[in-house]
Fold each of these.
Amino acid sequence: MGRVRRLLTRPLVLGGLAVALVLAGLGAYWFQPWKLWVDETVRESAPAAASGGAPRTLATGRLISHEHATSGTVRILQLPDGSRTLRLEGLSTSNGPALHVLVSDAPVKEGRDGWFVFDDGAHVDLGSLKGNKGDQNYALPAGLDLHRYRSVSIWCDRFDVSFGAAALSPA
């Protein structure tokens, strides 16, 4: 016991322990491993027009898995006032740091080839993913060309990788 106590009083050992503690804290902040066990469920209703009119579906897609197991559907809805919403339904993916919803001009590819392509070309970030489970809505910018932006990705901005993606097909 005395030998360990003497070792721990040496400046080099104390400095090494301090550096290791700081690096462990930074690693925990960067990777946020606790999110692997914490689900965030969102249950937003589909948007409805103030006049009570039903939204029209412009495009649909089914999410496929990339870096993490991902499933659910994507719908682009247009309200009678002309506004459009991207709706994720039945979403199930892993939680993670800095997850965003991107619309992109990149093609959806299965497997590892599709993991890294969604921020390479033209893309629009619709904001942070509200939750890794459930149903949620994201407003699309006015004038967004759905003929150009044909895919959606659940994108991890921290590690530049797609958790899952869907190709959009006209409804």
Amino acid sequence: MLQATLTEPIIAQVVDLDTSRVIWECLQQHFSQQSLANATHPRFQLFSINKGSKSIYEYLSHAKNLADQLAAINEPVTSTDLVTSVLHGLGPDYAMLVTAILNFPPLPPFSDLRA
């Protein structure tokens, strides 16, 4: 019954398995690894984000989108990590702003930084 509900690519993973318990364990391992990979990519993107030629609005929206993607898969990013990543990726044009923000701790929440 369990195998009948699976899609073709997933059936290939469990076709030789005998019991529902073993099938569930295989599926859990497969999808937990996939979930880890899904979480790793946006996390790497967030921690290496750069403004580049994007407008500040596009840049901040992209950073927030990455943080939201991680939150959606139960891998939330703290406000401090989000703000730190954004400040780090702003580049030399924003060096004075970054210095001013870093010299007046604590870091602002992302919503205040965005404003």
Amino acid sequence: MRIARFSIDGNVAFGVVEGEPSDQGGPVVDIIKGHPFAEFERSGQKIPLSKVRLLPPVLPNKVIGIGRNYAEHAAELGNEVPDVPVVFFKPSTSVIGPGDPIAYPSFSSEVHHEAELAVVIGRMCREVPRERVADVILGYTCGNDITARDAQRREKQWARAKGFDASCPLGPWVETDIDLERAADLGVMCTVNGEQRQLGRTSEMVRSIEDLIVHITEAMTLLPGDVVLTGTPAGVGPLTVGDEVAVTIEGIGTLTNKVIKRG
């Protein structure tokens, strides 16, 4: 199911998105009782999706990014595939939702898009064995690892380059009906102003979702709502103020954001 987090009339709630844009009246959100990290009930109170504001589908304690997990992307930036996964963090303050603006950071003149499959953790976990990885995943969403590429090159350490405010769009919802086998071969696309920039498949990842979860949880505890960004295919490129960037992942949906000048 598609679990969205949204606001309406100043109230924030989770709900299950039902229907498609082609349906008469369009999709609706069935508000749930409770939250998606435990058993919940649908309330039966349904609101047209067009009447709500979609928020980031989760509020992660931490976002864990994986660098250079697609060989062609590593090569396009002049890098080799590392012997072990490159792990970095994006703070919770970097997270925005669908339709929210990406404010161009003042310290950069070369901001890039990076379309990624995002794994949403469903339960507290650490030292997860490979055979239990599926048990700790709530579902998947679209992610955009917005990166200040010039700062990344200049500063070496990636905290500012990848952690600035609004650098982690997530959404539009969490799709829970994708298993690990299917997640291992999903189409990932990025467009800018309607023009295709990135097109790849998660089957091109150097290390699988299982590999990544095992590797990360050897070192740290993951909490419900934490997000793992699994890397980006080749084709990353610049964004400018006024651009509309969209990340589409097969079986999930499309996450769209516009780039604005930081006020």
Amino acid sequence: MNVRAGELGSLFLFLALVLGGGLVIGFVTAPGAWYAPLSKPPFNPPSWVFAPVWTALYIMIAIAGWRVWRGGRSRAPMKLWWVQLVLNFAWSPIFFSAHCTDIALGVIVLLLITIIGFIVISWQRDKIASLLFAPYAAWVAFASVLNGAIWLLN
């Protein structure tokens, strides 16, 4: 996939949307006094892990979105990309702000299903975009188990 200089602007817009949106939502819904005393499973990562992991994932999500956008804005992979972004951005406010760990669990499971759907559907047209979502799927699968464990323990 050749990239013309003019297309780099759209890549930067995707990066700004995803990274910027993730940063704003992370800042507004940062875990606080409510989250600290919750019982957490022994596999709960230290809090410093989340920022670098999400930064790397958001970069990959943006690049994958940009790649499928270039291939067809109205095609199924692009639609799934937008759905996953909405679900991704919705999870933190539901979990950390509304304190609804049960609803957040439903949202993150839908997110995982959407991510897997994106991987499967985009595979034929853009294997790189599909592969960029593989670490995202793994992390969200782990986060789903973590969300479920926190819900059960509290």
